[in-house]
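User: Hi! Is it possible to get a structure for several chains at once, not just one? Here's what I have:
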Amino acid sequence: MAEIIAFANQKGGVGKTTTAVNLAACLAVSERRVLLVDMDPQANASSGSGLEREDGRPCVYECLLDPSQVREAIHPTQIEGLDILPSSMRLVGAEVELVAALGREYRLKKALAQVAADYEYILIDCPPSLSLLTVNTLCAADGVIIPIQAEYYALEGLSQLLNTIELVRESLNPQLVVRGVVLTMYDSRLNLCNMVRKEVEDHFGDRMYSSIIRRNVKLGEAPSHGKPILLYDAGSPGSQNYIALAQEILDESVQT
Amino acid sequence: MAEIIAFANQKGGVGKTTTAVNLAACLAVSERRVLLVDMDPQANASSGSGLEREDGRPCVYECLLDPSQVREAIHPTQIEGLDILPSSMRLVGAEVELVAALGREYRLKKALAQVAADYEYILIDCPPSLSLLTVNTLCAADGVIIPIQAEYYALEGLSQLLNTIELVRESLNPQLVVRGVVLTMYDSRLNLCNMVRKEVEDHFGDRMYSSIIRRNVKLGEAPSHGKPILLYDAGSPGSQNYIALAQEILDESVQT
Ligand SMILES: Nc1ncnc2c1ncn2[C@@H]1O[C@H](COP(=O)(O)OP(=O)(O)OP(=O)(O)O)[C@@H](O)[C@H]1O
Ligand SMILES: Nc1ncnc2c1ncn2[C@@H]1O[C@H](COP(=O)(O)OP(=O)(O)OP(=O)(O)O)[C@@H](O)[C@H]1O
Ligand SMILES: [Mg+2]
Ligand SMILES: [Mg+2]
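Assistant: Yes, the chains can be modeled jointly so their relative placement is included. Here is the combined structure:
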């Protein structure tokens, strides 16, 4: 059965999408069957993986309303072993449309249950909010990886995020755990980054992945070519950082 | 009567808060009466302006439920002429609580109408989404300033944002205009930044402010001291960029 991992943080621009897209690619090239799910109406994970926008096929939005659509909505990608369940702008409507729906928190869980046996990892990219789309993702996931940008504002939102994860664990999904936190956009020359790193190490201890993602412009360029960093510039530090992180995730899986 | 300006972009981490906080400070030191409103449950604009978190007083959340609370919720700041209407985590609840409420889109507009005569500018920081909180802000505002990070993903979400602004103008707030877009976190040494700058110039023409906000670590450090850049490091490029942008806003006001 697939390990289902959510990439969540309501602070915007911290590297959720970049981490989900690149980790998915790294795990796939390590011969694992991977599904990347885009739960953000911005659909950045979809375009960052090379998908054309709005191609008329069902996307994750339709799957929340009717879980049986999921197989039709899944696309292959340029990487062997990596599929994607894309998002679209239509997803913005789901927040309001599902408010009064039965079992509204479990719609994604139901949809993914249809295909979980086909994958070893299912990675889910969240939007920058603690709304129903993120709650749906936390209910579908076994674990959460929290990308933390090495900036001050990114620290401020952590307690709110951890509270929300705890609430979901208590009332909706008892098996949900925080797998770990990963520091992103790190530049060791900046005091600000080192200050944040120290705070994160003090607060999370060994739940902070030792692989730190450094600031690297190639990670910002790759999405404009619709490619994960592995296909855009395999030799870049960005690639190496995500390959190292993928190895830590694989090692963890062996232990559980 | 106050000019009411929203800082909106559903893409996360593009510099909405940094622009709202620093522009508010620059306008206040130019002898204008300014109110900064924080409509993001993350409350970054509140802490970036030096406010202690959760001090037991009403915040913008209470004002959406009962517009008469607004005077009690407003605080002075360290800068003469600059007041703040802070946010708190409680604001997360407003999204769901207001869904069925009467006049739900106009709650902020009603609250600000109580105090608009006391200010020349009211600047409103939005969360990274196109949800009810952002719609409330667009209904209360006369104009929108769109911060755009010099990155690829930041370009992708623009059409969705412009569509939403157009929808609000057609059905809820006919006077709403896009005052302009401002490029943030710009590093002229990077091709990616220059590519994005060219796209934004081609797309927006003279609605792009000529003041570009360059990447400058001092802008990231200032919030950890609870200070706008003007108080933290007045001589830094970050300060100069926001002073220049404030001057463009003031010049615009004279023309309208
Ligand atoms: N390590 C890195 N080095 C350089 N740029 C990066 C890095 N990680 C991410 N970026 C860039 O920073 C921006 C923010 O990252 P990303 O979009 O992945 O964050 P996010 O948390 O998914 O944002 P949102 O909250 O909008 O969903 C993007 O333009 C991305 O290309
Ligand atoms: N010009 C700049 N140079 C360097 N750092 C910057 C600059 N502008 C903003 N930052 C930093 O980048 C991060 C993102 O900026 P900010 O929080 O203002 O964006 P936002 O759009 O308000 O994010 P959110 O979508 O979460 O509300 C912050 O940590 C901020 O301190
Ligand atoms: Mg994202
Ligand atoms: Mg913000």
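The interface with chain B takes residues 10-14, 17, 41-44, 47-48, 89, 92, 95-96, 99, 127-131, 149, 151-153, 156-157, 160, 190-192, 195, 217, 220-221, 223-224 of chain A (CB under 8 Å). Strands of chain A lie at 3-7, 34-38, 75-76, 82-85, 121-125, 143-149, 177-184.

User: Great, thank you!
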